[in-house]
Amino acid sequence: VPVFMGSAFKNKGVQPLLDGVLDYLPEPSEKANYALDRSKDEAEVQVSCSKDDPLLALAFKLEETQFGQLTYMRIYQGMLKKGNQIHNVNDGKKIKLARIVRMHSNDMEEIDEAHAGDVVAMFGIDCRSMDTFSDGGMNLAMSTMFVPEPVMSLAVKPAETKMQNNFAKALTKFTKEDPTLRVKVDSETKETVLSGMGELHLEVYIERMKREYDVEVVSGQPNVNYKETIAARAEFDWLHKKQSGGSGQYAKVSGYIEPMTEEEIKELGKPNEFKNRCTGTNIPPEYYPSCEKGMRDAMHEGSLVGCEVEGIRVVLQDGASHAVDSSDMAFRICMASAIRETMKTAQPSVLEPVMTVEVEIPSEFQGAVTASLSKRMGMIQSSDMNDDGSGLKLEAQVPLANMFGYSTELRSLTQGKGEFTMEYFKHTPVPRQTQDELMDKYKLERLEKEAAA
Predict the structure, then answer these.
(1) Are 325 and 247 in contact (CB under 8 A)?
(2) Cα–Cα nearest to 194, from 172, 213, 214, 211
(3) Element counts in the chain: helices (H) and strands (E)
């Protein structure tokens, strides 16, 4: 492997490095690049790298400037021409190219067109990082549509009210840059909740807010994103009846809930399914959508620990209505209540995110690091020694809730020589003791909220 040394600050060794890029790295036409065909379940399609073929370009970096958002784009196929229209494959928007520039450090050179293999920048394009652009004739993308669900959440707020504007700007920019970073406002506490792929992921963005936007952020305790599911089929026959003077509320639903397999969830493309198997008009057809909305309400907040529910099929078979008191809201409330109560009898369980953790360490620390992972309920999957026996790569699956503070522990165990990476694997059931603790904590929080109200 060619190794270059130098310092950009003192402009030492920069020219040999640039010459090395030309000499050793492949030019665009020498390396095979593949797009993903979204109409064929993201099957790979080789990109030609010819300027005469239809356009395929990837927005790989966004930068805020005094003139607005600057979008860096690499052209894989076809050409960009000033004044032409391009299509964002991800959201279908059409954009007219007003200005194309070639970047030289901080200097911009205006150009009229760019061809396959070029990296250019453009103003006036509202897009997200890793969006694909075409000239409208293809459903190909240079990056996958799959974005993993966040596994950790953190309540954040600016330390001072005057920082609120910059805080909002930072969050808007970061969520455009990184599709795995999510921001939402909690409907009950009105707190801003930042969700991402782990402790370090969120820490990096909090540090960037301070460095790039001069926003001091106050953050709460990290929360692991648990989920709920069931393991058995259970039937429901639920009546919602409320009378308080004037027109009341009346709805009745019956059917069953059952667990879905991982294969069914993957094939369906969503975590839960609603099936309407009603015959006749015991439930008027106009209330079917309300029943489905009630099912979604129940999936949003489960009965065990108030977390999102996944892996459940809800089948509606029959019900009843009242000519005066039945309404959309009555059926929605009835369906949500029926599912929440029935889940308690369907062997419910809490799922926790499990991470694939790769640890690279000098081999003399193998025993201590393996013991540390086992103490955190980690399952060692593989252990590979490098060729000369000096280093070791461990792969383990560890519950995310047990990974807090691991970076500090690993440094102390390996004299600062160890490092690790972590990515989401899947959600698995928590031990019974942990589930009981989470349920007790949830009940206590609900009692405190009710007392405060």
Answers:
(1) yes
(2) 172
(3) 9, 28
Q: Which pair of tokens denotes residue 254? A: 């019956």
Question: What is the pTM for the complete model shown?
Answer: 0.68
Q: Which amino acid is at 326?
A: S
How many Cα atoms sit within 13 Å of 422 on the Cβ side?
A: 26
Position 446 scores a pLDDT of 86
Interior/surface letters 386-404, b for 16+ CB within 10 angstroms, e for the rest: eeeeeebebebbbbbbbbb
Range 239-276 burial, b when 16+ CB lie within 10 A, else e: ebeeeeeeeebbbbbbbbbbebeeeebeeeeebbbbee
Least confident of 106-120, 204-218, 235-249: 235-249
Decide: 257 and 346 in contact? Cβ < 8 Å. yes
Contacts of 269 (CB under 8 A, 6+ apart): none
d(CA 58, CA 131): 6
The CA distances from residue 189 to 155, 161, 192, 200, 302, in Å, are 10, 17, 9, 25, 18
Within 292-418, strands assigned E span 308-309, 312-320, 348-362, 379-385, 391-399
SS3 content of the chain, % helix, strand, coil (to 5): 30, 35, 35
Cα distances (Å, whole numbers) of residue 399 to 67, 170, 354: 45, 30, 4
Q: Which of 24, 28, 37 is nearest to 74 (CA)?
A: 28
Residue 177 CB contacts under 8 Å (≥ 6 apart), including other chains: 62, 128, 129
What tens digit of pLDDT does each residue of 219-258 get?
Answer: 887 778 899 999 999 999 999 998 776 678 899 999 999 9
Cβ(326)–Cβ(281) below 8 Å: no
Residue 4 has which token pair? 């270059």
Of all residues in the chain, what percent carry a pLDDT higher than 70?
98
Q: Which of 359, 366, 367, 364 minimizes the C-alpha distance to 396? A: 359
> 38: closest CA among 169, 140, 162?
140
394: tokens are: 């461990």
Is residue 253 within 8 A of residue 334, CB to CB? The reply is yes
Q: How many CB atoms lie within 10 A of CB 29?
A: 12
